[in-house]
Amino acid sequence: MTTNSLPIKIESAPAAPGTLAALEVGQSARVQRVGGSGTLRRRLMEMGLVAGAQVTLVRIAPLGDPLQIRVRGYDLALRRAEARLVSLIVPALPAETAAPVEDPA
Fold it and tell me: Is the pTM of this model over 0.70?
């Protein structure tokens, strides 16, 4: 008996810049707004994802979904689709950690 092993292809929509789904592991930002509607939006806000809340991406599952974030002192797992609904204000890098600019001369 032979088995066909087909590669698994996981497709997901790209994360919009400035959303929770676009953060890099270890990166922090502040919530600007929570999108969506109805019970999902309300539930996200009940879990602490409200305007001004600091969030940090702790880790991403091996297959890319879910995301583990830290908000208000506790860890929360969200699907990427849910994370795309959360708009963030990502702080600019401080000058000392930004990539050096080479002198063209």
Answer: no
